Amino acid sequence: MSPVPLSRASRATTHELQVATPYRLDLTVSALRRTSTNLVDVYTSDGRYLRALGGFAEPVIVSVTQPRAGVLAVSLSGRADDAERALASVRRILGTDRNLWAFDRHARTIPWLAPLARRMRGLKPPRYPGLFESCANAILFQQVSLHAASAIMRRLILALGTPVERDGVPLVVFPSVQRLLDADDAVLRAAGLSAGKLATLRRAGEAIASGALTEAILDERPSADAALVLRGIKGIGPWTATVILLRGLGRLDVFPGGDSSVAANVALVAGGGADAAEAAETLGSQRGMLYFCLLLARLEARGEIGRASDVAG
């Protein structure tokens, strides 16, 4: 598909966002995108974060840099009356207002975690801009390796997403829930979705499209109750519900432990003998940051942190 051109009503505006320090854009984007093959959340070799935001009359293209410690410079290409909502999305996606002093304090008391937390200082907990994207990512990353899930997601986005372009860099708008619901099963299976994940993704999409599941419904509940609401959708278990709450709603009081990837990442950091569940208990209401730190430890070992995105289709 050719990139969708922006209308004549589109124009570029620049903004400065104050961020809670310490802040590092490279670490936060790395935790958000997971791997450099992510087509939606793009990081360039000159340190720019690029994303085409959906949910507007036409896509709003975001370009973010960090010119100094406490500031992000944001350029928006879109309709002028969409700028305020787009900036709110940038704040949400990049965790600009999150203060992590409590995590830093508790992490220093965990011998195996303290050196990692120091290296990753400036990481903020990223969030997906909408509930459907949160659910889709959590469902696709169930019970498969990071590499395999990333490949499936890339194919799904190429099949259903809307291509746009910024300064010669190809971008893709994450597909809407309706685009997913309208897609033929054969398209989704060709992307690599198993029958079970396809069915779960459709059930989640139908709940969101009908209004039976909304962020407002989840926001008004404590995390344990919100997880139960999500688990009411067949195919969403405890791990998936926790990841949706963490990566979608920014709930740092949850930790998706109990799977092989967590154990492998802890072993990578600590070399054996460390207990993720015990560390999560020590971190208390900030335990979700353990997930992001362990993810970055894995990405660090693979040379993925700050690596320029591979956006070739």
Q: How would you characterize the overall build of this protein?
A:
This protein is an alpha+beta fold and 313 residues long. It has a domain at 6-97: DNA-3-methyladenine glycosylase AlkA, N-terminal domain (TATA-Binding Protein, 2-Layer Sandwich). The chain has helices at 25-33, 83-94, 101-107, 114-119, 131-140, 146-160, 177-182, 185-190, 195-210, 215-219, 223-231, 238-249, 260-270, 276-283, 288-301; strands at 11-18, 42-43, 49-53, 60-68, 71-78, 162-166, 169-173. A 5-stranded antiparallel beta sheet has the order 1-5-4-3-2, with helices on one face. A hairpin with a 6-residue loop joins strand 3 and strand 4 (60-68). Helix 5 crosses helix 12 (238-249) and helix 13 (260-270) crosses helix 15. The protein is globular and about 50 Å long. The mean pLDDT is 94.
Question: What is this structure's SSE topology?
Answer:
Layout: E1 11-18, H1 25-33, E2 42-43, E3 49-53, E4 60-68, E5 71-78, H2 83-94, H3 101-107, H4 114-119, H5 131-140, H6 146-160, E6 162-166, E7 169-173, H7 177-182, H8 185-190, H9 195-210, H10 215-219, H11 223-231, H12 238-249, H13 260-270, H14 276-283, H15 288-301
Antiparallel strand pairs: 1-5, 2-3, 3-4, 4-5, 6-7
Helix pairs in contact: 5-9, 5-12, 11-12, 13-15
Summarize the structure.
The protein has about 325 residues and is of the alpha+beta class. It has 15 helices and 7 strands.
CATH topology of the domain at 6-97: TATA-Binding Protein
| Shape descriptor | globular
Task: Give the helix tally.
Answer: 15
Poorly predicted spans: none
Q: Please list the strands of the largest sheet in the order they lie side by side.
A: 1-5-4-3-2
CATH architecture of the domain at 6-97: 2-Layer Sandwich
Mean pLDDT over the full residue set: 94
**N-to-C SSE string, H for helix and E for strand:** EHEEEEHHHHHEEHHHHHHHHH
Corresponding CATH superfamily of the domain at 6-97? DNA-3-methyladenine glycosylase AlkA, N-terminal domain
Strand content: 5-15%
CATH class of the domain at 6-97: Alpha Beta
**Overall helicity:** 40-55%
- End-to-end C-alpha gap: 10 Å
Structural class: alpha+beta
Largest sheet: 5 strands, antiparallel
CA-atom Rg in angstroms: 19 Å
- The number of distinct β-strands equals 7
